[in-house]
Amino acid sequence: MSFLALSIVLLSVASCKEAKTDTAAVATEQQTAEHSGETYNVNTDATSVKWTAYHKGGLNPRFGTMKTTGTLSIEDNNLVAGSIVSDVNSLLTDPKAVDPKMNNGKTSADLDAHLKSADFFDVENHPTVKFDITKVENLAAGTESKVEGANKTISGNLTIKGKTVNVTFPAKVEVKDNQVDIVSKFTINRQDWGLAYGTDGDPKDWMISQEVDLELNLVANK
After folding, report:
1. Is 108 exposed, middle or buried (0-12, 13-18, 19+ CB in 10 A)?
2. Centroid of chain to Cα 12
3. Where are the alpha helices (DSSP H) in 49-137?
4. What CA–CA distance (Å, rounded) separates 9 from 190?
5. Would you identify the CATH topology of the domain 3-221?
């Protein structure tokens, strides 16, 4: 099969890939929301931030987690502000995502090391990913979301590798019994933060999808 024919096949597969996440809207950096009300601390052990990246066409997904800390501000039982930090050094690829037999002996640990290198996140200079809430609104009536029970739209400044972009996505936010639960599933384009493998136009980067899925299950306690 020629390279052109292979490209067409891969793009066709990509177009048929069923979306399991919401697409985050992006904008320039915004003013962060002021903290008010009561402070809730993110429960790192109960919280999960999952990521999934793909090769072109949604093939060979790679997925894993990062540990997260931070605080949320709750006023009148509503989420009004927050700052969430993920430690890139804690990035862990699920071993099921990398089969050494199909990857020249490479393991999930090898992928972890590569993702943390200057080729991608450059943890030596950028050890964290940060999200600062800029706005929380009620989800507009009729808005469809891949998150069951989504009731809010959250906007925030997402900083990756020193670059900040404002992202907006639907979420399910519940405040009860001195606990806040936030669930969201959304997709970002890694190129918005300059996350590229090699130089512009490098074939190695072309083979990696620009889409990255993030799944947030945040738990914060008073």
Report:
1. buried
2. 25
3. 108-116
4. 23
5. Lipocalin (2.40.128)
Q: What are the residue ranges spanned by the domains of the chain?
A: 3-221
* Confidence class for position 209, pLDDT limits 50, 70, 90: confident
Rounded Cα–Cα distance for residues 138 and 111 (Å): 39
What does the pLDDT look like over 131-178, one tens digit per residue? Answer: 999 999 999 999 999 999 999 999 999 999 999 999 999 999 999 999
Which residue, 144, 145, 149, is CA-closest to 174? 149
Q: Which residues pair with 72 in a beta bridge?
A: 40, 82
Task: Provide the pLDDT for residue 7.
Answer: 40
Q: What does residue 97 show for φ and ψ, rounded to 5 degrees?
A: -85, -15
In this structure, the dihedral spanned by the alpha carbons of residues 160, 162, 167 and 173, taken in order and rounded to 10 degrees, is 60
Query: Half-sphere exposure of 67 toward its Cβ, with a 13 Å CA cutoff?
Result: 7
